[in-house]
Amino acid sequence: MTASPIPAVWTERHRLHDPGGEVWVGVPIPGTEVVARGDLIRDALAAAGFEIVPPAEHDPEHLHRLHHPAMVEYLRTAYDAWVAAGYPEEPGQDRVVPYVFPLPQAVADRPFRLPAAPSARAGVYTTDTTTLIGPGTYRAALAAADAALTAAELVLAGAPAAYAACRPPGHHAGRAFFGGSCYLNNAALAAQHLRDGGRGRVAVIDLDAHHGNGTQDIFYDRADILYASVHVDPGAGWFPHFVGYADEAGRGPGAGANRNRPVPPGCGDGPWLEAIGDLCAAAGACDALVVSLGVDGAAGDPESPLGISPAGFARAGEALARLGLPTVFVQEGGYDLERLGGLVVGTLTAFAGAHP
């Protein structure tokens, strides 16, 4: 077995995050962002000869570059406040889950007041009821951020590419919101770290089946980081529903630095790869690349509406490699536990084989 040239950053601290399921349309369901995801990815990487690298710990101040400090502090303290309020006993909910949300049309033009009740505070920063907080969620999210930052540091130190096996994922976490099973935006943190390390312009190409509304939010006003995403059309009824449309092109200094390529459900490899080709062309003038590597678009994935084949993911890896850029891969979605590890390894292996 030949060792992969791409180091893989992984930490067992991902196991601290056990969301205990989701609440979807008011119904508790098992959920798909489970502990086994992180371990299966690690096993596949090790079996394929990838060097497994532990992440370095970073000052949480890195988070405040992109996330509102009040949201980060909420994530840090939410579970303890929930337990102190007695909710695990009455009404019997042992995970933090919101029940009210401060919609702009309900609170606009009024002073912001943080609710006194922890049950109400749960709706201030999260976008949905599927992103529950457990006793180890914040520490696991911090470890995922550390993994992304470490992968960026490996690339800044000269590695052509590095992979961060982030769990929980991150691309649905914005400046002052989290959701979609994401808490901190790992890919955005990696992109910012590359910028801070001297890379002039960074591209974030998002392959996840769902639009990275959090990454778009963070960089929407910036010209120095291109966000480019291929994802299932939210207009066809898919998460995140409200954003991810083709006419969202950036704002102010960031005008033109946001590219969305929504594709229809069931599109298969052809239209998806064509969209990736367009996104790669947009990234050609950049100095470094971050790939939000969601593999939940694969045929058979329980969250998949796209039907992408393993060969399609390999061809995507080759297309990204032909950019010739120093590249950080950051794990996002992928929920078919039987195929998850193989899809990740196959994409990275194809990239390594084609990278100049």
Question: Can you put this structure into words, describing what you see?
Answer:
It is a single chain. With 356 residues, this protein is α/β, with parallel strands linked by helices. It has helices at residues 35-47, 61-64, 69-84, 104-107, 118-121, 137-156, 186-196, 213-219, 269-283, 310-321, 340-354; strands spanning 8-9, 22-24, 27-29, 52-53, 161-164, 202-206, 225-232, 258-263, 288-293, 327-331. Helix 10 (310-321) packs parallel to helix 11 (340-354). It is globular. It starts with 7 loop residues before the first strand and ends with a helix.
Write the layout of secondary structure elements.
Layout: E1 8-9, E2 22-24, E3 27-29, H1 35-47, E4 52-53, H2 61-64, H3 69-84, H4 104-107, H5 118-121, H6 137-156, E5 161-164, H7 186-196, E6 202-206, H8 213-219, E7 225-232, E8 258-263, H9 269-283, E9 288-293, H10 310-321, E10 327-331, H11 340-354
Parallel strand pairs: 1-4, 1-5, 5-10, 6-7, 6-9, 7-8, 9-10
Antiparallel strand pairs: 2-3
Helix pairs in contact: 1-11, 6-7, 9-10, 10-11
Produce a short descriptive summary.
The chain is of the alpha/beta class.
Main sheet, how many strands, which sense, barrel? 8 strands, parallel
Helix content: 25-40%
Helix-strand makeup class: alpha/beta
| Distance between the amino and carboxyl termini | 22 Å
The radius of gyration over CA amounts to 19 Å
CATH topology: Arginase, Chain A
Mass-distribution shape: globular
